[in-house]
Amino acid sequence: MTRRVLVMFAVLAIIALGLAFYALHLKRKVARDEQVAAQQQLALAPPANGPPTSVTLYVASDSDGTLRRTQVNVTLPPERTERDRAVLRALFGQYLQSSSPHPIGAGADVRDVYLLGDDTAIVDANAAFADAHPSGVLAEALTVASIVVTLNANDTKIQRVKILVNGQERETLAGHADLRRFYEASNIGQVVKDLQ
Amino acid sequence: MPLSGRRSRLALAIVAGSALLFAALWGRHAIVHAQSAAQNQLTVYSPQTSYSVPLLDANGQPYAGLVELLEPLGSVDARADGKKYKLHFTPPGGRPLELQFTEGKNKGKVRGNGYKLPANFVVQNGRGYVPLSVTSALIAKLLATDTELHAAPRRLFIGNVQVRYTLELHKDNPSRLLLGFSSPVNPSIATEPGRVRLTFRREPIVSSVGENVPYSDPLITGVSFSEHDGLAELDVTGTAPMMANFADGGRTIIVTGAPAPAPVAQAAPAPLPPAPANTQNPTPQPRQPATPRFLVLIDPAHGGSDIGAAITPSLPEKDVVLALARRVQHELANRGIAASLLRNSDVAITLDQRATSANAARPALYIALHAANTGQGVHVFTALLPAANLSPQGFLPWDTAQAAYLELSGSVAGSVAAELESRKLPNTRLLAPLRPMNNIAAPAIAVEIAPPAGTVDEIANAAYQDQVAQSIAAGIAAVRAKLPEVRP
């Protein structure tokens, strides 16, 4: 093998290594940017002022497969979708506690709540909500049910709910619960009756 | 800034070289994966069932997973402790038998006696693997039965399960070749001009009349048998288009000439008088509608790269539910109910594919099996769908097909929950927004097993799974009369 060929192979190997490092760098950069964007998104939420308001949460329990109605005090913003978001963040707050009876993935958050007309809410959760959610039919069904009935309990006009993840439609929450469909609050009410 | 001629040629050469290097690496990667997907599994035929076992390439030869190999044949309890690997295998109605091996060693113990493998034992991700070449002898020792391994085509026969065939050529006009089988068969049939290929994936077909049988016939020129990649094929070659028909309840397949295609319709054809009856060439009779039958389709969730929930770091949901599915199938068989598995090996199937396959199988009942490490006991689900006034006889919307069967599904779920209760197994009956259950056009339930009261590991306990499987089977048997049989 001539020296020129060896040099050529060495150059190609260096280029291949360089490209691999560059790809790794880009991957890390995208992850960093997404994290920063998520933090900025949280920081952009308008600060809530005023006295705390009592809101109703339906909190799931994995051990007995039930949803328990509970009241907590939350400072609610004046705008309707921001209020809905604050209620869901209060629900997620219950699940993110270390002693939660229904733990969900660390870092799970609600990015936004949108309204379609007056009665349909689109809940946009962040990636951590789905990516780190415990996998299981019961665990996922409880999460979906608790989101829908909690929203409906605090904003009774909301009759239909759809859950997005990072602004995108997702097939299932963590391999089981269907996230492609709109959930009817009246239909989920059956689950709550069954579960309580 | 423009590059000089020599520099630009060098740059071009580097770019082209890089592209070639990547293309070569990528191409090799793709070929390795394509080969492994097609060839790396062993098909096992046993008197109870036929199943596939994924193979692992190690030490320059194929290895089979011990749990995957033995689980369909009885109860298996396996544990890896460092380099030591212990497995207890209990054949149906038999006593537990112990196998012990050590990673990287070729000596072990089977039923208390020394056992030498032809190559070192391999442990990967907590699973034990033995060389493919020893699987036949190992199973023969455990089950005390005859076994036969066809190593190159990856086929293992346990007991006298082999299905043999006979060939009978009738020189009629057109000629007919009758393939007679010792048991009913259901191969996939592919036809192309001058050829009919029968592919047997689940049936233990073996050659009994030689691999190539030539005929001096104007239509049928020969039959050849081959086996490869865990399946068997019979190729019938001829001089004109041919077709195959089943007869004698699947014990006979008749290959004969295909009818000539109808002439292309002309514009404004003249009315023709009725054709005289042709007694020489009887026209093929339409197939009689199949008899309705009661089939339970069991869908062990997840598989392949989709492991489902990690019950423990070394126990994925996909393995727990496959083991449970086989137990349920066995318990249903004990009650005289036919059941088949939507997957019987570690393969990935999308949710839409599951629904499509399930609906195509036209089962009387569909059961999805899941496992989780949250909650406790057994959760029995029916679909969470709005009540809809749909008739099962009409077209059903894909996303809510199950809505037409909610009442029957609820009856089955209630019956299974009652059986669980009678066995004192903690259980909950619920509605769940679960795919692909929403898309199933048949009565359907989902069963999720969580650990009993004890530790998470107990979810894989054979006694616990047996109790759950018995409850499911007894629950189905109790409502069988309510569920309509379905024409395949």
Q: Would you give an account of this structure?
A:
- The complex is a heterodimer of chains A (196) and B (488).
- With 196 residues, chain A is α+β, with helices and mostly antiparallel strands.
- Chain A has two domains: 44 residues; 143 residues, no CATH class.
- Chain A contains five helices and six strands, in the order αββαββααββα.
- A four-stranded mixed β-sheet of chain A has the order 3-4-5-6. A two-stranded antiparallel sheet of chain A has the order 1-2.
- In chain A, a hairpin with a 4-residue loop joins β1 and β2.
- In chain A, α4 packs across α5.
- Chain A is elongated and about 80 Å long.
- The termini of chain A are far apart.
- Chain B has 488 residues and is of the alpha+beta class.
- Chain B has three domains: 118 residues, Copper Amine Oxidase, Chain A, domain 1 (2-Layer Sandwich), CATH 3.30.457; 93 residues, Immunoglobulin-like; 188 residues, 3-Layer(aba) Sandwich (Aminopeptidase).
- In chain B, α4 packs across α7 and α6 packs across α7.
- In chain B, a hairpin with a 2-residue loop joins β4 and β5.
- In chain B, the strands form six sheets. Chain B has a seven-stranded mixed β-sheet.
- About 8% of the residues of chain B have low confidence.
- The chains are: A alpha+beta (196), B alpha+beta (488).
- Chains A and B meet through α1, α4, β6 and α5 of A and α1 and β28 of B.
Radius of gyration of chain B: 27 Å
The CATH class designation of the largest domain in chain B is Alpha Beta
Low-confidence stretches of chain B: 23-38, 262-284
N- to C-terminal separation of chain B? Answer: 73 Å
